[in-house]
Design a protein that fits this description.
This protein is mainly beta. It folds into three domains: about 100 residues, Immunoglobulin-like (Sandwich); about 100 residues, Immunoglobulins (Immunoglobulin-like, Sandwich); about 100 residues, Immunoglobulins (Immunoglobulin-like, Sandwich), CATH 2.60.40. The protein is built from one helix and 25 strands. The chain has a five-stranded mixed beta sheet with strand order 2-9-8-4-6, with no helix packed on it. The chain has a four-stranded antiparallel beta sheet with strand order 1-3-7-5, with no helix packed on it. Strands 10-12-15-14 form a four-stranded antiparallel beta sheet, with no helix packed on it. It is flat and about 85 Å long.
Length: about 350
């Protein structure tokens, strides 16, 4: 009786084990059958060559090769120059979908490559990357594309010349040139070559001290480049320039010494620094000549926050005395914080 019982029990166990394995296999098969699969026939699109300002439209076609419902969660582009729209966010088995993209070439020149990322519920490809690539040519060529005048000494002014040419328009014209800075004037000249102009860009001798931020806007009859903008930047300096213009000592622990540096550069050989003063009393300043280059002389001014500085925030001032008529005294704010050690 006992032997028969064990035989029957073993048979029952085998049957239950087999049923369990079959259930697991069936579940696995069902899961595989219900998995969506996204696939693109051509994930990379090369539009060839276009002119700057033209738009490119393209449709990426995809298919759901899996058994489950494919769900497009999101589509993100790598720059603001590209827009993407999904026609169908849910695609059934063997169904097809489309993603429409529009690429605007206003902000690029030369060979470009932009990415579009498609987010879906495909477990093997949750982030599918598409690419649009090609070459963008300029219909209107401006040389140089940027005007960087670096440092200009106050009262001297400066002039630079732009060359503007169309490579396609048979009767290319420039209607007007505008400067966004009143201290910068422009003069337009038609060259002998029928599609070429030159623009003289002049900085006034009366331009104020400080950094320059301006744009030269060229209006043309080009279909794709009606406006061409050339950045103009630099700095008008006096007899002496200071860097940095504001001096931070940062945060220092109580009874610790901290040293920071200011550089003063003179642009005339008859201008020099006679002395420096600094306050409050827990700050100390020393000046030394650092480097000489033609008419330029650079001074290194070392500022020391002494150990007896009180706890808390502080504001001070470094005074630089010079032989310049325009800048006899230059004030440099000094600030920082001393915290308890």
């Amino acid at each position: 009786m006992t032997k028969k019982f064990f035989i029957i029990a073993n048979l029952i166990a085998i049957v239950l084990f087999t049923q369990n394995k079959l259930t697991i296999c069936n579940d696995t098969v069902n899961n595989v059958k219900s998995t969506p699969i996204i696939s693109f026939k051509a994930p990379v699109y090369n539009f060839g060559e276009i002119f700057k300002g033209e738009k490119v439209e393209h449709v990426y076609k995809f298919k759901n090769s899996g058994k489950g419902v494919l769900k497009i969660k999101d589509v993100k582009v790598s720059c603001g120059c590209t827009a993407a729209v999904v026609k169908s966010k849910e695609v059934l088995h063997n169904g097809n979908g489309e993603i429409n993209i529009i690429f605007n070439s206003n902000s690029a020149v030369g060979k470009i490559s932009k990415d579009i990322t498609v987010y879906s519920n495909d477990p093997d490809n949750p982030m599918y990357k598409l690419t649009i690539t090609g070459v963008i040519n300029e219909e209107v060529v401006v040389k140089p594309r940027k005007l960087n005048i670096a440092d200009v000494v106050y009262g001297k002014g400066i002039k630079r010349t732009l060359s503007v040419k169309s490579i396609v328009a048979p009767m290319f014209t420039i209607s007007k040139v505008i400067s966004t800075n009143p201290d910068i004037a422009t003069t337009l000249t038609k060259e002998k070559e029928k599609n070429e102009y030159s623009i003289d860009v002049s900085l006034s001798k009366e331009a104020k001290l400080g950094r320059l931020g301006s744009k030269i806007v060229i209006h043309t009859n080009s279909k794709n480049m009606e406006k061409v903008t050339v950045p103009f930047y630099g700095r008008v300096v006096g007899d002496i320039s200071i860097y940095p213009p504001r001096l931070s000592c940062g945060t220092v622990k109580q009874k610790e010494e901290k040293k920071v540096v200011v550089f003063a550069t003179t642009y005339n050989d008859d201008v020099n620094i006679s002395k420096v003063e600094i306050f409050p009393d827990f700050l100390e300043a020393n000046v030394a000549k650092k480097e000489e280059n033609e008419k330029k002389m650079t001074y290194k001014i070392s500022v020391t926050l002494k150990k007896d500085a009180p706890v808390g925030r502080f504001k001070g001032e470094l005074k630089i005395f010079t032989s310049s008529r325009n800048q006899p005294v230059i004030d440099v704010p000094v600030y920082g914080m001393v915290k308890e050690g």
